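hey so i finally got around to running both of the ones u sent me last week. sorry it took forever, my laptop kept dying halfway thru and i had to restart like 3 times lol. anyway pasting them below in the order u listed, first the sequence line then the structure token line for each. didnt double check formatting much so if smth looks off just lmk and ill redo it

first one:
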Amino acid sequence: ARGNVSVSVSNNGVDRVDSFARYEVVSSVRARMAPSSGPASGGTVVRITVEDGSVEPYAVEVDGITAALSWTGSELSFKMPALAVKDVSVNVLWQGLSERTSFLFSVFSDPSVVSVQPDALSRGVITVVDVYGAGYGAHVSSCWVGDTMFTGQVVNDQHLRCAIVSETTGVFSVHVGNKDGAQSRGGVVDVTVNEPVAISRLQPSRGPTSGGIVTVFGSNFARSSLLSVAFGEDTQVGSFVTSSVIQCLLPSRFSGNVSFEASNNGVDYSNSGVRFEVADLHIDRVMPSQGSTRGGYTVQLVVSGASVISGAAFCRFGDFTIGATKLEAGGYECDVPEGDAGTASLYLLEGSNVLTSGVPFVYSETLGVQVYGEGILSGIWPVRGRLSGGTLVSVRGTGFVDGGLQCRFGDQVVSGAGARYVSSSLVACNTPSSAVSGAVAVEVSNNDGKDFTSDGIQFVYEAAATVVSARPSRGITGRSGQVVTVIGTSFQHTWELSCRFGLDGSVQALYMSSTMVSCILPAQSTGIVTVGVSNNGVDVEASGVGFEFMPEWSGVLLKPSRGPIAGGSAVTVVGAVVSSGSGPVTCVFGDERGVGTVSADGGVVCTSPRVVGGGSVFVSVSGDSGESELVSGLEFVYYVEPVVARVWPARGPVEGGTFVTVYGSGFSAEGLQCRVGEAVVGFPDARLVTTSAVSCLLPAVSTVGSVSVEVSVNGGADFTDDGEPYVYEVGASVSAVRPSRGLSGRDGQVVTVVGTHFEHTRELSCRFGVDGSVLALYMSSTMVSCSVPVRGSGVVSVSVSNNGVDSSKGSLFVYGGTGSVWEVMPSHGPSRGGTM
């Protein structure tokens, strides 16, 4: 036989030297087998190549199991059966040879794939992806995308990292395995391969250090939550417009030339070589900052960083662009075009590229133009306010006196508390209400209205900004950088445009339209505050729109963390607290949206949605119909619903204590509970025997009757609904055994057992002692007949069981020696005989 044997030498055929050599006996058939390992579920195609073509196999045995083989003349192949995890022997038996060729095959646990990150790739680009699942290690260390294998790095038994590249686009299934083939049996996870992203140009390609919105033109952009741009070393979320256009909000940064690339998955970025110039360029002041709607006059722009402008410069008033002249002092001068009454945004451009953020320029119906420094009045702030009046306006100038002071807005005069002296160069005036929008002249009188200044400084009446809603309406306490979009009416593009959260949380707003602004939330303590918008930095209209600052959730988990694929599980988000009445929450299980509710004490409960197949998914909880994400990355496992097929025994005493076995499918130890009627028992009274059998210790009940037995595998959140019955009844009771004595070692003896509550069941039995149980013949509810089991001399208790498991308190039965007579009952009878 094959193997290693020792070889030693003897001179006399008896005595052998202590030293010896090894000699290997090999098979005359030289062959090699591949692969040498595979998953426990079987199905691995194994090939054994034979160098000697003169032999032919007739059988292959795998761990004692004969496998069907296929023979080509030089190679035999077969499929591995399902086996336990261990090393097994593979033996090949050859025709005409007494020996066999043996190989060792390693059986490992079936690996699975649960998720792949990222799941969107670019054609022709090497992407490092993280594969999550189970069963990774020495036998499973490669990724298979379609029919292509990629060598991986095992991070741990649940995490495999692979560098993947595909030269074709489409959707491909990801499996795990080894160099011999894909081995995963835990479901299919797909990745999508798209054409790589490319950037052709940016609009604008130059911008200020304060940041701004950039439109990116290119190709192959995808609508994805991971769509992003790399702005130098910073990454920003991209906003999808079309497959060839995206937009992004650039952060503030130092001036310089930075690279600009895009990615659909946040990992693979384009290599287009496009650069963006960050210029420390902004308009400090516009002189004058308001003028006639007829235009035809000039304004000067005091500009910081103007030295970076090398080409032709332009001013843009709203939608109208006009050439700009560079001044010796470094600023620019522009002719003002005609415009409609109101505020226009003024930008400085180089060619078609916008270089600065917009600043406000006010067109008014007056004929002249405000020039600061002329006359007594030099300026006012704010320069605009609401129609309802009540705006406190600071008027700057010279020569003010504390007496006879009045302020005039157009043709309306205010005095007394409405015109307050602060200093000889500052007066505070409260605006009166106005019936119409527009600009009016602000003048001051020192002599009770007999004479007013005539400097023509303009104050603009306009509709007050009103707030309708805030999206999202919730944020995290103490966290900076959170952005909220405020929806409303009459928002103006002004320097002072701002959002106010509560009484003192005022922040600058980004103008988006007359009905929409965006604000970065100030850090606030926990609570609900009102949201307001101010066009002038002073007036804020009262609104009923609230914003809730919530403490950041920590230690959040799902209970239960598993449920059936049919959905409907009430899943509590433990550790999550939301103010009651603060609106609905949305729960997303994988790709499916579930219903979320907030209880009176602020707890969050999600109802799991129906899914197609079992497996692990990630759960996120959001407020405002999904706009404000509160927590994400919580794992929930879907399983195929368990089924209860039958219960044994199906009856037992009302005192409880009966161990019943519940047969069915889909059982697991995690969260195992049994429900008997309305009573629920868990570990240790409910134990897993196998995936198709559960043992339950039944509780006591007060009344007889039938109840259903159901099973839960998620802590009682969901039970089966199969209705398998169990009958509670009064237990059998024994009062006498007739005869109460018998012969030891004798077969065929019969006794009649008298008692109460005997039931005509298949399991009706008599028990003699501890382990002498025999089937009983039902005669009535008070009498059964039983064969006496053979045993030695002694005294045993005889009891009766209606279910074959539980037995009553018994009556004594004596096993006596052969030939002995203890007593005859009755001791007399008639001469005709027949007495028993």
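and the second one:
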Amino acid sequence: SRFARSSMRAVAVACAAALAVGSSAAFAPSRVLSLRSGHKASLSPNGRGPANYAPIRMVATTPAQNDWLAPGQKYGPQNPAHPIEKVDSTGLLKPWTNSPEATEKNHVEIVKRDSDHYKTPLDKEMKDLEVISISDDAVVLLKAHGSYQQQNRDLQRSDKQGYKDSFQFMLRLKVPSGKIPPDVYKVIDDLATKYGQGDIRATTRQAFQVHGVRKHNLKTVIAAIANAGSSTLGGCGDINRNIMAPPAPFTNDPAYQYVFDTSNVIAELFRPSSQSFAELWLDGEKTATVEYWKKDLIYGATAGGATTPIPGRAQTIEELEKQLEEARHFDNGLGIITGDKEEPIYGRTFLPRKFKIAVTVPGDNSVDIYIQDIGLVVILEADGRTLKGYDVLVGGGMGRTNNKESTFARAADHLGFVPKEDINEVLKGILAAWRDHGNREVRANARLKYLVHTIGIDNFRTLVESYSGKKVQPWVPLPAWKMVDWLGWHEQGDGNLFLGVNVEQGRVKDEGEFRLKTALRKVVDTYNVDVRLTPHQNVVLAGVKPADRAAIDALLLAHGVKPIEDIDPFTRKSMACPAFPLCGLAQAEAERRMPDFNQRVGALVARLGLAGESFVQRITGCPNGCARPYMAELAFVGQGPDLYQVWLGGSPNQDGRTGWAWKEKMKQADLEATLEPVLAYWRDSRTPGEAFGDFTNRVGKAAIDKHVAAHAAVPAA
């Protein structure tokens, strides 16, 4: 159900990335951080870095041309706009320099440098249709266009020729805030049937993936998606990824409307500028229609349906395009704009790694706000209707590497509050600071979280201010976070309803009597509803007339789709990445294992006298963390065939802490024996109403280990 709307409205958050250009006045902070001073931060799995960072100081730079900079490019990782010098003798605060010699060790950076803005050698290899695969270098580039090359690993040992012949491509769409209009949904559904493996997968970042596309069909499918008013550009790669937002389409709530508006603007603000995508997939031509999220900026975030509409962006697409271009390319003279004419913001080598952003309102943590590179929370004025600005978080992220302590999951820090008129330049300043100073030498440590962790949030804030020319203000206090999944029926504020449908592990498929793919298509065809993907791999059907509710319920039930009341709580709260058979990084099963683990953990909980209790449970097939396991109350991370790390201690509301590794290796067959003493400890020693994640976090690893050891020493009855 909807939570404390009245109390929340006073501080409502919805990052509406304002299109107003920032001031061009010079900004010269008296004391700015030096990324080459102070102490190297201690990289601990749960830490946020030491608090005693030495202040750092920016110094002027003379633009220098080298092979790592595009013609005309002044600034980039080898020539940062604000290089940093030591101000004391305590050593390096940032233990990497991104010098040309050091960056040469990172092959991905070389591929990007030599690619002519994500184009070559992909362009040449895609023309060779006699070869069913592409090279590793081309794969690096293809990711930014929204695709991964895959093989069917189920065949790897049993059918070696079949495995060789199984090269295929996964396509991931760009779906800002998870919204997909009915006409676009129909195109995706048709393409998955005709060119893919017959299903569609909802991701944990509110996008759709189409699996099983062969190389000779790839251009056809990408072009069809683009000409339908969507895109795959930015689905993957070292650029801005899909923008997340709560999936609830509350048309009468200004905060939620500002969220949708902001998400759409950011998607365009950080859109790559070069023509590589059009040249590769559209023969250099314009698409048949503009992207639907741009149309929403013209007609309002709900396409004219809001009962309390927020101010519009523009009257025409042409006016909007002009505003977006001005906001994207506005040069404040402080080093955000690189000088690369093809990619003014990104530059020749784009970003060090993926870049993830989410926008939400106060209290609604359906987006896992603390795992984002940037999290934005919309803050309203006291009238509850006017946008004031945004609370900004930075430096979250999930990816890590097993047995490598220098990599870790990290919850984001609070950067501070930014007024709405400054948000564009601050967002661009964050990107530019990381673009220039992120670790280009070691790809495993390239995410923004490692820069924030290493230099500290205060130093990073000052660095951002030096690029943006805008002062970040103190954080506006927020109400408590609540993880909501928006499943079931809800009023959306304009007389219509929306329905959240549970999609187990995000797989929209027809299998036996369970025919979810057919059912959703019939609902969209018959009732012309919007589809909104949720951050938990589920689907929301928006804009349902009350008179159609019973018919939609009956249609879904007839196709084997259960109502939310019949979904067990462990399934409802679980997530898993795809893993086998198609992910090349998977070390263990995830999506195919999750239903079994949900059933077994649920049965164990009931057997221990805890019937009715449940908690957030997630599985990933490798430590990269695509299903956000490190925020869960209980998580399993692939360590090898049928082997998992066990993580405990995440928050039931994912509100600002990561969990921690408890067991390095657990055989899947040992699930019950491993978890029973821990769950019994929770049952016997928790405070009233204490959630499993809160309990394990409170008592800690040492106490759990001691209890488990004592439990093992008791002879079986």
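quick thing i noticed on the 2nd:
The chain is about 30% helix and 15% strand.
anyway thats it, ttyl
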